[in-house]
Amino acid sequence: METQSTEVRPFRIDIPQSALDDLNDRLARTRWPDELPGVGWGYGAPSSYLRELAEYWRTAYDWRRHEAELNEFPQFTTTIDGQSIHFLHVRSAEPDALPLILTHGWPGSIVEFIDVIGPLTDPRAHGGDPADAFHVVIPSLPGFGFSGPTHETGWDMARIARAWAELMHRLGYERYGAQGTDSGSVISPLLGRSDAERVIGVHVNGALGFPSGDPEEFSRMTEAEQARLGALQQQMEEGAGYAILQSTRPQTIGVGLSDSPAAQLAWIVERFKEWTDPSAASLEDAVDRDALLTNVSVYWLTGTATSSARLYREGRANWGQPTARSEVPSGVAVFPGDFGIRTIAERDDNVVHWSEFDRGGHFPAMEIPELLVGDVRTFFRPLR
Predict the structure, then answer these.
(1) What's the helix, strand, coil split of the chain in %, to 5?
(2) b/e 340-366 (16+ beta carbons within 10 angstroms → b)
């Protein structure tokens, strides 16, 4: 019989009505900043756009409907390394399904993966081959959503990877795959390194490739990869303000994000606008508006703006640092706007699968779930 310390407890989302009333009241009393004419998104999220979105959030968006949708999936909590971890655990009916742990990043959440759960666990019902079925585990990162807040320092990505290894062991999975996006594209390979005997493969999207400075490494890059490296450098110079703040003063920025839902909305929406499909005419053309607001609502209603930002503070010492090479089979999906560079990926990992797409963006599970599911199936098929 399990001890209390390793107990896996059923969980159901049930936000108090008072919290929803408070959200609506705060949105109604937002003091909006002025904005310059004609600058669009160049100075950040425009107040004119946010006003309309916040009003929709307040008057038309239905949290209860989306809460019920999330609650259709089996959810649990368990305590690992002193931290409560929340996760979805959806088992396939297919007898030979492969366990797969999916990891989000910031400013994402478990909400990102809602549209891929059905196709991954039940391909038979979604026009796929039942031999491609997965048992799906989707944890909320420590400090994020229903796994938050954290209560001590030290929850960096390596520690999260070790917690994921314990989670999969606790669920009885001795052989499994990992998939990750954004921060998950770092955590999942670390999981492969820390649990190499059980992780059969690691698939990522949204991976960052930091060059070593070796001229030979640069010379092996394709023209497209050199352009991605240039875009990454520009992003670090012009679009990394959020990361600098969260990696240095998360507690300070957290005051505004924890007190104002409009600030929380702006902080997340601006990143979605920046990182979704660059060819999309508008943000809503890239991601569903209600799905976006459900994601924002998870941050707001759990009060985890500050604790989620702390992930950057905990991990900044390791940014761009060399890592020991992993021989676990790895697959990479590169979507428009991503910075994946195969030369760099192959330096650190045993890359056996590489895909590049002309649709989608940094949040493919929300933007083009069918492409992501197809690539995950293709990667894991020979590894089962």
Answers:
(1) 50, 15, 30
(2) bbbbbbbbbbebebebebeebbbbbbb
DSSP character at residue 144: S
Chain-centre distance for alpha carbon 136: 15
Pairing of strands 75-80, 8-11: antiparallel
The token pair at 255 is: 């005051």
Record the tokens describing residue 85, joined without a space: 């971890």
Please name every residue paired with 134 in a beta bridge, in sequence order, or none if there are none.
98
The whole-angstrom distance between residue 7's C-alpha and the CA centroid of its chain comes to 26
- Structure token digits, residue 75: 């959810």
Cβ atoms of 372 and 365 closer than 8 Å: yes
Give the pLDDT score at 318. 79
CB 269 within 8 A of CB 45: yes
Evaluate whether 204 touches 331 at the Cβ level (below 8 Å): yes
Average pLDDT (65-71) is 98
pLDDT value for 4: 53
Average pLDDT of 137-141?
A: 98
Sign, CA dihedral 194-199-201-202, equals: negative
Residue 307, token pair as written in the block: 């604790």
Rounded Cα distance, 286 and 165, in Å: 33
Residue indicated by tokens 């795959």 = 177
pLDDT bin (cut points 50, 70, 90) of residue 326 is: very high
Rounded Cα–Cα distance for residues 253 and 266 (Å): 13
CA dihedral for 85, 90, 95, 98, sign (positive or negative): negative
Reference 291, options 113, 119, 120, 142; nearest CA is: 113
Residue 135's closest CA among 93, 169, 91?
A: 91
Entry pTM: 0.96
First to last CA, the chain: 31
